[in-house]
């Protein structure tokens, strides 16, 4: 059997699964490992220096341990500050997820909303994106950790409260015609977010573009001739409470049950 590239997908929580789904749809025959740093979740509330050192440590060790071929930082909050450092210390390609400001601005006729974590909307990187790629459309910023928690709760089997969602999104309602889902957790709430906007706002995320980028970096991989693993690994950095609903969800995506990180001190 030919060598199947192994892709590491990383986030603070379940958000990166939205990116995994897009990559797997385009590249179904690769091998995947998912790692989430729930010990330090939510990243949107974490001091930058701690975030950078955690991501660096976790990724470097997992890349070594599993002979990873390509890393996807499926987290806007992390990607907007850790990519230069990761690319410095790793020899494998690192793909980051950052808010899709450019396509959103091109689609908008009025104003763009950026829905992200409180950290992402403050990042210099984000403000450069806005400055460079939305020169003629105003970008309204909305940072919310509660929305991130709502996505985690949904995948743990809890219902989403549309009225609460409407209240969180109220600063953008009637103001923007396009909204960027600038946190990988939010595509997991896409249907509910669309409903909260009365289906009047176009929602844009980076998932498909990331999948295309991964594919282009693995251009020499023949998808048809290789067969991927039947079950993928998924690791967390802290013990999870009730895992049943989440394990049920990830089983449908092709993962085996969630395991604690193989390095104990992380
Ligand atoms: N999923 C992450 C992002 O794209 C971060 C969520 C969090 O831990 O605050 O930004």
UniProtKB/TrEMBL annotation:
Q: Which InterPro entries match?
A: Asp/Glu/hydantoin_racemase (IPR015942), Asp/Glu_race (IPR001920), Asp/Glu_racemase_AS_1 (IPR018187), Glu_race (IPR004391)
A Pfam family that this protein carries is Asp_Glu_race
Q: In which pathway does it act?
A: Cell wall biogenesis; peptidoglycan biosynthesis
Q: Which UniProt keywords apply?
A: Cell shape, Cell wall biogenesis/degradation, Isomerase, Peptidoglycan synthesis
Location of the active site:
75, 183
Root EC class: isomerase
Reaction equation(s) it catalyzes: L-glutamate = D-glutamate
Q: Give the enzyme's EC designation.
A: 5.1.1.3
Could you tell me one molecular function GO term of this UniProt entry?
A: glutamate racemase activity
Q: Which residues bind substrate?
A: 11-12, 43-44, 76-77, 184-185
BP-aspect Gene Ontology terms: cell wall organization; peptidoglycan biosynthetic process; regulation of cell shape
Annotated function: Provides the (R)-glutamate required for cell wall biosynthesis.
Q: Which family does it belong to?
A: Belongs to the aspartate/glutamate racemases family.
Give the protein name, as stated in the record: Glutamate racemase
Organism ancestry:
Bacteria, Pseudomonadati, Pseudomonadota, Gammaproteobacteria, Vibrionales
């Amino acid at each position: 059997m030919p060598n199947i590239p192994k892709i590491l997908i990383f986030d603070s929580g379940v958000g990166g699964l939205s990116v995994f789904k897009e990559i797997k749809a385009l590249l179904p025959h690769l091998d995947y490992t998912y790692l989430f740093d729930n010990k330090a979740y939510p990243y949107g509330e974490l001091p930058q220096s701690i975030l950078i050192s955690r991501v660096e440590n976790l990724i470097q060790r997992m890349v070594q341990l599993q002979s990873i071929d390509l890393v996807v930082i499926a987290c806007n909050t992390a990607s907007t500050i850790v990519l230069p450092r990761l690319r410095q210390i790793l020899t494998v390609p690192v793909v980051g997820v950052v808010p899709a400001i450019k396509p959103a601005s091109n689609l908008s006729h009025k104003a763009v909303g950026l829905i992200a974590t409180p950290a992402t909307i403050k990042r210099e990187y984000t403000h450069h994106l806005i400055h460079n790629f939305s020169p003629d459309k105003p970008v309204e910023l909305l940072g919310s950790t509660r929305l991130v928690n709502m996505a985690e709760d949904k995948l743990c089997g809890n219902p989403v409260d549309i009225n609460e969602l409407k209240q969180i999104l109220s600063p953008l309602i009637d103001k923007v015609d396009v909204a960027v889902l600038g946190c990988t957790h939010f595509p997991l709430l896409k249907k509910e977010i669309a409903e909260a906007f009365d289906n009047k706002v176009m929602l844009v995320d980076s998932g498909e573009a990331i999948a295309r980028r991964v594919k282009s970096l693995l251009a020499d991989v023949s998808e048809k001739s290789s067969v991927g693993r039947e079950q993928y690994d998924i690791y967390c950095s802290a013990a999870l409470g009730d895992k049943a609903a989440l394990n049920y969800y990830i089983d449908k995506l092709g993962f085996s049950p969630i395991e604690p990180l193989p390095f104990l001190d992380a």
